[in-house]
Amino acid sequence: FFSSRRRHTRYPLVTGVQTCALPILNVEVRRLDGILLGLGITRVDLLSVDVEGWEIEVLEGLDTRRIACPVVVLENFNHDPSYATYMQGLGYKLEFKVEYNYVFTKAAAA
User: Fold this and answer.
1) How far apart are CA 76 and CA 93, in angstroms?
2) What is the C-alpha end-to-end distance of the chain, expressed in Å?
3) β-sheet bridge partners, residue 69
4) What is the dihedral of CA 99, 95, 79, 92, to 10 degrees?
5) Residues linked to residue 46 through DSSP beta bridges, in sequence order
6) How many whole angstroms separate alpha carbon 104 and alpha carbon 42?
7) pLDDT of 45-82, one tens digit each?
8) Is residue 94 within a helix (H) or strand (E), and if so which, with residue range?
9) Do 72 and 44 contact (CB within 8 A), yes or no?
10) What is the mean pLDDT of the chain?
11) 3-state DSSP assignment of residue 66
12) How far is 70 from 95, CA to CA, in rounded Å?
């Protein structure tokens, strides 16, 4: 569901102690909107995305002009301001935060 811009090739067994090389797996990457449209879904009332720092990449695979998502909740563990900036660019407004969860609503069309 995400873009393949970042690739992890090493994974810590124990933080700060040792790492080992893992094989690279080739997997099929599909856009979220393609999956939903393939199932005949054109509206998701509440979309919650919690993918350990890959939230923007997931959203890059969702064309909100084709799939209506009036409410989107993003985990933003580091309180990264780029999440709000990205969502504003898609026409969303940050309504409120609950700890690390940022709740956005689609702004009304002008």
Assistant:
1) 15
2) 31
3) none
4) 140
5) 71
6) 19
7) 999 999 998 999 999 999 999 999 999 999 999 999 99
8) strand 92-98
9) no
10) 85
11) coil
12) 12
For position 13, what pLDDT does the model report? 47
CB 2, CB 54: distance < 8 Å: yes
Asked whether residue 7 carries a pLDDT value surpassing 50, the answer given is: no
C-alpha to C-alpha distance for 103 and 50, rounded to whole angstroms: 12
Q: Tokens 């054109």 label which residue?
A: 42
pTM of the model: 0.74
Which tokens in the block code for residue 100? 């690390």
Q: Give 44-47's long-range contacts (Cβ < 8 A, gap of 24+).
A: 44/68, 44/69, 45/69, 45/70, 45/71, 46/70, 46/71, 46/72, 46/73, 47/71, 47/72, 47/73
Q: Which two tokens stand for residue 41?
A: 């879904």
